[in-house]
Amino acid sequence: MQRRHLVGVLAVFAASLAGAGGPAAGQTAPAAEPAGPRFVVTYVDVVPASEAQALALLKGYRDAARRDHGNADSQIWQQNGVRGHFVIVEQWQDEASRKAHREAAHVAQFHEKFGPLRISSYDERVHTSFAVGAPSSVPSGGAVLVATHIDITPPGLDKAREMLRSQAPASRGEAGNLRFDILQGARQNHYTVLEAWRDDGARDAHLTATRTRSYREGLREQAVDGAPYDERLYRLVP
Questions:
Q1: CB-hemisphere CA count at 13 Å for 178?
Q2: Residues linked to residue 204 through DSSP beta bridges, in sequence order
Q3: What is the pLDDT of residues 43-84, one digit of tens each?
């Protein structure tokens, strides 16, 4: 009887060890990496006096990236009114092509030359598609480009996602809109909104529309952890 009891205890102990590596009660396993395209938005700030040198390096990086396998788009945006502030906007066919690009020799060479010019970290953010429209023509040099990062508190996530999904196609249908894409960040409550408008007049009309004002006010109620109206305005680097 004593030996039988010991065997039973050991069996229970072994079973508990076997399950130790799995998800704890009430937890879910990490989500599988989503398929589909990758959108990379990278914020870079350089020494103002080095702006011309940085621009030349950024253009070289952009042109080389466009030749890499799986690249669907690569643009450089320059922030309005602030010297030395840029954002790199890229789209890749999938995660494999993005990773292959990052490991390319020309990318390492770019970072080696560009690193000494930076005054902040190379803030690269990888996204998947959330509400992305059909590819449009490349905006002209006079277009108004907007990048907005949104953090949403978990309790308001479902409602905020509904607002984001409805706002994107409605904005694309407005006169003068060239782009209105909402990208999903690595965290489920992080989003980046990329906009392109033909000119200031088109964007002003969008901002004053009743639907846009309702969207912004509603989103502010949900996104109390973020700054949904801390928009950065840019122009396209040719």
A1: 18
A2: none
A3: 999 999 999 999 999 999 999 999 999 999 999 999 999 999
Number of C-alpha atoms within 13 angstroms, CB side, residue 186?
6
Q: Is 158 left (phi over 0), alpha (psi -120 to 50) or beta?
A: alpha
Q: How far apart are CA 222 and CA 16, in angstroms?
A: 41
Sole residue written with tokens 């060890």:
17
Over the stretch 164-222, which tens digit does the pLDDT of each residue have?
999 999 999 999 999 999 999 999 989 999 999 999 999 999 999 999 999 998 888 87
In this prediction the pTM is: 0.84
Residue 116 DSSP label: G
Residue pair 23/29 in contact (Cβ under 8 Å)? The answer is yes
All structural domains of the chain = 35-128 (3.30.70.100), 132-233 (3.30.70.100)
Structure tokens at 145: 């480009």
CA 193 to chain CA mean position, Å: 8
Q: What span, in angstroms and rounded, lies between the C-alpha atoms of 140 and 76?
A: 13
Taking the alpha carbons at both ends of the chain, their separation in whole angstroms is 84
Residue 86 one-letter amino acid: F
Q: How many CB atoms lie within 10 A of CB 144?
A: 23
